[in-house]
Design goal:
single chain; about 0% strand; mainly alpha
């Protein structure tokens, strides 16, 4: 069992080892500021898109209500026309029975 200690390791092996550097430098700060800026810009873009979708949804709902009201009016007119036609047909039928019965 040949365990190699890091102190006894050749220089090539020591260079390959990953080391943690706890210092904070300008690159870390700039990366963090860029990260925060990206998040803020993405949030603003998403917020704007959500607002636009809400406006469009509101407009669609309003048009839907208007169309439903027009449909109800048209349906009422059709029902009235059907009643008039039915009344006319009934009058014609009664008039035909009177003529045929004489």
């Amino acid at each position: 069992m040949n365990a190699v200690r890091h102190d006894d390791a050749p220089p090539e092996a020591r260079r390959k080892r990953v080391r943690f550097d706890p210092t904070i430098n300008l690159g870390h700060v700039l990366t963090f500021v860029g990260f925060l800026t990206t998040i803020a810009a993405g949030w603003q873009t998403m917020s704007t898109r959500v607002a636009l979708v809400e406006q469009r949804t509101s407009a669609i709902e309003q048009r839907s209500v208007e169309q439903e009201n027009r449909l109800k009016e048209s349906l009422g007119e059709i029902k009235a026309d059907v009643r008039d036609i039915k009344r006319s047909v009934d009058e014609i039928a009664r008039g035909g029975d009177r003529r045929g019965g004489r």
